[in-house]
Design goal:
With 399 residues, the protein is α/β, with parallel strands linked by helices. The chain has two domains: 6-305, TIM Barrel, CATH 3.20.20; 321-397, no CATH class. It contains 14 helices and ten strands. It has helices spanning 6-16, 65-73, 89-98, 130-144, 160-163, 166-177, 192-202, 219-232, 257-265, 280-290, 297-307, 330-341, 346-356, 380-388, and strands at residues 42-44, 51-53, 57-58, 78-80, 107-112, 149-154, 181-188, 207-211, 235-239, 272-273. Helix 7 (192-202) links the parallel strand 7 and strand 8. Helix 12 (330-341) packs antiparallel against helix 13 (346-356) and helix 12 crosses helix 14. It is globular, with a radius of gyration of 20 Å. The structure holds iron/sulfur cluster (2 copies). Residues 314-320, 330-331, 334, 374-376, 378, 380 line the site of one iron/sulfur cluster.
């Protein structure tokens, strides 16, 4: 496969940029790969009927429009962003890029996170209203500069109550009726099996974006729920497939991206994956999976070894919650830790910590924790103490 980097994008890409307006299909020559577009593996996104390549772009941390164009040039057509990513800059960047393309050739998904949801219980509060939800949706549409989005997710749902939140679900259904949203869905990275089962029961959801990777301790349960969702016609998109990206805080032990993506795609109920991409090297890795999802013995071995290590990824099994004498949202704090050290995404870690409101030293004065508090044997106290220092950094310094 030809090496993809900024330099050869500029060399081969600039001249052809005008030709990519009509469709993504005509632009493959920009980044010739060893296999052509006809080799791309597609799956159907449930009852939506949309055919998607098995690899899509998680845009969350990306800030380079050339990388988005390179994805399109290589057959990736589905882009996943959110109202809250990069304080809106992420949606704006996508909107600016997509202005030059045929809108119907691109599948855009965004997410809106309702206010007032209790981080620990996932339950709605007084501030969880349709009015706030719609205000944020309009903000997203303005940034994206589009008449419609293909998929609108209710962002970060962890309770059955939010799956069935009357006001917000009604607002989302109305947006679908009005044609401003083609399909409605939920994104979930805590209590996924319960959330997905509730979506199946509710009957009106089109798509679920679920955490799915080889480190999850309740994988069997999650896979059963995903199967029920797929059988009911809900399209399933997998996120967090890289399990934090690294196994250690120092980032010396990377998780093999190709093996992790392929592992997720062995589950045929998963339509597509949204690996976060921030560089051309990452794109190049992910493109290998676009046309080949068969796992080699070596890749299987890598997954086996990685799954035996604690890593940075908290599975949100919640086993630590009742043991925490300070009633802290430990899994969310572990997630902030992973954002900072695994993804080097300080902005995301900072904004999550700000939402949690747990302050600069939540474990001060408590020494109750042992590594047995955590299923993965994390030293929870030291991780919380470490990551919580971030809230003392002035927001202007966080990028
Ligand atoms: S050290 Fe922190 S996480 Fe552990 S029990 Fe105490 S408050 Fe909870
Ligand atoms: S910190 Fe450990 S026990 Fe708590 S949710 Fe995460 S993996 Fe489970």
């Amino acid at each position: 496969m030809t090496k993809i980097n900024r330099r050869n994008f500029l060399r081969t890409g600039a001249a052809g940029a005008a030709s990519i307006m009509a469709s993504t299909g005509g632009a493959f020559a920009m980044f010739p790969s060893s296999k052509g577009p006809s080799d791309i593996i597609y799956r159907t996104l449930g009852k939506t009927g949309i055919r998607l390549p098995v690899v899509s772009m998680g845009v969350m941390r990306a800030d380079n429009p050339s990388l988005v164009r390179a994805c399109l040039d290589n057959g990736i057509i589905h882009f996943d962003t959110a109202n809250g990513y990069q304080r809106g800059r992420n949606e704006k960047m996508l909107g600016d890029v997509f202005r030059d393309y045929d809108r119907s050739s691109i599948i855009v998904a965004t997410k809106v996170k309702p206010e007032g949801v209790d981080q620990r219980t996932g339950l709605p509060g007084d501030a969880t209203t349709a009015e706030d939800f719609l205000m944020k949706f309009e903000e997203s549409m303005q940034r994206l500069q589009m008449d419609y989005v293909d998929i609108l997710y209710l962002h970060s749902v962890s309770s059955v109550e939010m799956v069935n939140h009357r006001e917000i679900t009604r607002a989302m259904k109305n947006l679908k009726k009005e044609g401003r949203v083609k399909y409605i869905g939920i994104s979930t990275h805590t209590n996924e099996p319960e959330v997905i089962d509730a979506m199946v029961k509710a009957g009106f959801w089109d798509v679920v974006l679920s955490r799915y990777n080889f480190t999850l301790s309740y994988l069997d349960k999650l896979e059963e729920s995903i199967k029920r969702a797929a059988e009911s016609g809900i399209g399933v998109v997998a996120m967090k497939t890289m399990s934090g990206g690294f196994l250690d805080r120092e980032r010396t032990k990377p998780i093999d991206a190709v093996a992790a993506l392929k592992w997720a795609l062995q589950n045929e109920n998963i339509c597509t994956t949204i690996p976060g991409m921030t560089s051309f090297d990452m794109l190049e890795e992910d493109l290998k999976v676009l046309t080949d999802i068969n796992m080699t013995d070596d890749e299987m071995k890598k997954i086996l070894i990685a799954s035996g290590e604690p890593g940075l990824f908290c599975t949100s099994c919640n086993n630590c919650l009742e043991k925490c004498t300070g009633s802290l949202p430990v899994p969310d704090l572990m997630r902030a830790y992973m954002y900072a050290y695994g993804y080097v995404n300080m902005e995301k870690a900072y904004s999550l910590l700000s939402e949690l409101g747990t302050g600069p030293d939540p474990c001060a004065g408590c020494s109750e924790c042992t590594i047995d508090n955590c299923t993965k044997q994390f030293d929870i106290r030291s991780k919380i103490t470490d990551i919580s220092r971030l809230v003392n950094v002035p927001v202007d310094f966080i990028t």
